[in-house]
Amino acid sequence: MRFTLGLVALVALVACAPAVPDSGAGVGFEDYGTYEREKAAREAALAQGALPPPDAVSTEPLNATGQAMSAGTDDAAAIAADARAALDAAAANSGEVPLQASPSNPPPAVENAAGISEENNFDAVGAERSIEEDAARIANNRAQYQVVQPQAIGSRPSDVGPNIVEYALSSKHAVGTPVYRRMGLSASSKFERNCAQYPSADQAQLDFLRRGGPEKDRQGLDPDGDGYACGWDPRPYRNAVRG
Length: 243
What we know:
The chain is an all-alpha fold. It contains nine helices and no strands. The protein has a domain at about 165-240.
């Protein structure tokens, strides 16, 4: 009796157990051949749909908004607009047709342009005057030609005052050589104060000579007694004469 009950229980457990899948089937619980065919079909579909088809490019011109213009009414409207603009420009230009600037257009002819010489244009000159007229003009120019002969400059007037160039050439000693006697305790300060009033050493030397020169140096412009005021140097004038 016990054996019969055990057998019945074993049969019941076997009936309740799930079915074991076929180990020979492929991925997805199908056979491997079917899986390979579906995989190849899926990869082919992905390869064909990877890039979208190119859009068609239109050869029609674009308007100001970027949309394609039709070759019919739009061209006619553009021509009409250009015609209206040309008429408006002509009306604003006293009836004269405006110049169309383009590299293919020849330059406009210049007529009676004052200030533009045409001496190098043989055709223009030949139309204006003849060879005989040119010869007469050359003869007239030669008749008016004058040669100015060199003339003597003349002597320099004696009442124009001292000349620093003449003084530089007449003196022979160097700068700083004491030639005239000087005395005074405040010679340095007087020299600096009075020399600061002149814009240049040449102006100081010229005024120094006008006031009596080195013999009467009341302003203290020549404290070392070399005869040259405020550091004036005669060497540039001497070198100019020597060449």
